Amino acid sequence: MDNLRTPPRPLPQPDALTQPFWDAAGKGRLVVQRCGGCGYYNHPPQPLCDRCSSRDLKFQPVSGRGMVYSFTVMRQRNVAGFEGEVPYVNLLVELEEQPLLFMISWLPGGATEGLAIGQLVSVSFERTEEGMALPQFRPVVD
Ligand SMILES: [Zn+2]
Q1: Are the C-beta atoms of 110 and 126 separated by less than 8 Å?
Q2: What's the pLDDT tens digit per position in 15-40?
Q3: How many A from CA of 46 to the centre of ligand 1?
Q4: Closest by alpha carbon to 137, among 100, 101, 105, 99?
Q5: CA distance 46 to 136
Q6: Domains of the chain: residue spans and CATH
Q7: What's the 40 CA to ligand 1 centre distance in angstroms?
Q8: How far is the CA of 93 from the centre of ligand 1 (A)?
């Protein structure tokens, strides 16, 4: 199986709703859609605020800091484009700006040593060969 060619990792497909998020990432900035009516952060971007249904939504910079809310180690080769990456870690990150404001990230190499729920993380941007910048969260090292 290791000698079989695997498909490339899938890339995000920006649309009108998510393009500002990807544009900011390309400049090394993490932004989240925020409601002008109630202040709630919505992620992924929504056409209406999840809390108050307002359409007054704008992207605002956030700190890029958060904590590991949960994680899982992927050991099976059943996700297209990631067959050659196992083991790796899927991270569910809660941003510090708002409870339950989540982003998904991954850690290559199954690096679980010292990783724990509640671990502080910060964003960095992974540049792809195709020119995209993917926000990824990495543990904060003291
Ligand atoms: Zn709102």
Answers
A1: no
A2: 999 999 999 999 999 999 999 999 99
A3: 11
A4: 105
A5: 21
A6: 16-62 (no CATH), 64-142 (2.40.50)
A7: 5
A8: 22
